[in-house]
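Hey team,

Filing this mostly as a record. A colleague (T.K.) asked me to run one chain through the structure pipeline before their review meeting, and I want the input and output archived in the tracker in case anyone asks later how it was produced. No errors, nothing strange. Just documentation.

Input sequence:
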Amino acid sequence: MNEPQRRRRRGSKSREEMLAKRSKPPAFNPAPPGPVGGQYRPLTDAQLEQVCNTSLRMLAELGMGDVPPALEQRALERGASINELGRLCYPRAMVEDIIDGACKSFTLHGRDERHSFEVGGDRVYFGTGGAAVQTLDLDSHVYRPSTLADLADFTRLVDTLPNVSWFTRCCVATDLPEIIDLDINTAYCLMQYTQKPVGTSITLGSHVDPVVDLFDAVAGGPGKFAEKPFCKVHISPIISPMRYGEDAFEVAMASIRRGMPINAIIAAMSGATSPATIDGMLAASFAETLAALVMVNLFAPGYPMIFSNWPFVIDLRTGAFAGGGGEISILNAAAAQLANHIGVPSGVASSMADAKAVDAQMGMEKALSSLACGLSGANMVYESAGMMASLLGASFEAFLLDNEMLSHVYRMIRGIEVSEDTLAFDTMKNVITGEGHFIGETQTMEAMERDYVYPRLGDRLEPTAWAEAGAEDAWQRANAQAREILAQHRPRYIDAAIDDSIRAQFNILI
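Output structure:
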């Protein structure tokens, strides 16, 4: 083929123009939050039924202990019974009726509606969680006690991360000794520094009203929060094995009265508070999460609740919690499969690295679990950014690296779209019989925008160029970017007059 023909096929654009176009960031996110999951099914259909049947048998025959009197009375009226050991037993038909009437989806609102999303079905969103009592310091690179200022900084950092769909407080402000101050100031940070959907823990039932009063003030007046709730409460209503927790029950009842969605978290430990066998643990933790679903729906049928079965693993050699590895990854993926099987909004946990440093161990552990949980079709994947040291620590740099990791996870969940256009037979014909490369083809540029994720922190330089650029590792690049964001992104999302009113009513310490 002669030179004029080659130029006509490539068009009139110069090499410099093409390089400039390729260097621009994509016009849109090729892997946004909310792809459809469910490609990974660790349990076969037969195994799924076996686990479900065992869980229902546990509730019917073994029952629940330490049942709050109000719950026991309501359950007995609905068809439950007390067995010879004094435990409250839920017959299978009763549990199945409650599942049928349970909430199947609801909107988790952001205060900016651009951040709102539907919880339920098989769409996948990654967000945060945790209660880290230590923070990996940006300067010293060692852990120190977490503070209220750290929580504020984590909140505004996450406010900038597109792949983290909601922010649940990731650390505990250990500098606040009074529990009511901790609950109120945590809620305040969530309101002041992000407009994404948020989540928080509330220690006592009596603290729910003041927290929601603060939310009402931000939302525009009494009752406004319940109209479009933007915060979910995290409770752990079951003490494994198979007992109710009174404080969490009281928080749940108070939250229902104020219209705050519930994230009911069951975090049994393999070989300690739950069987060490993988299938036995799944059956036990699924039964306990069903017991939480029964509890909520006996008082408020169809109430928005996230079915958060988080089977945790301990290292049976030492008894230490093991947040990373193949076992916890497959367990939480299977937990999502079980929740999706009964059609309720599902929550699981991932990325709880045991690593203390921002290193290869961290990356390995986080990638394994986040990919498994995402591909399983969990609606909400908690702990997915920032968490380190087996949930004892949180890291600013990890938040940024995890946000980038999640873009690749979303891309894998999105999968491959096949069509006559993208199979590109005509383009291949033109190139193979013409110039012999695809660089200048229109379809190449379109695919670049549509199908590929390009890292900002991940390094793709060749070794010499990397060395000439300073030979930085991922930790160094993330540290610099975290500092830049924290220096520049200083939102204050609470109106100044409302903020003055809140400070006059509550002991705000930041």
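Quick notes for T.K.: Residues 1-12 have pLDDT under 50 and may be disordered. The chain has one domain: 31-117+126-412+457-510.
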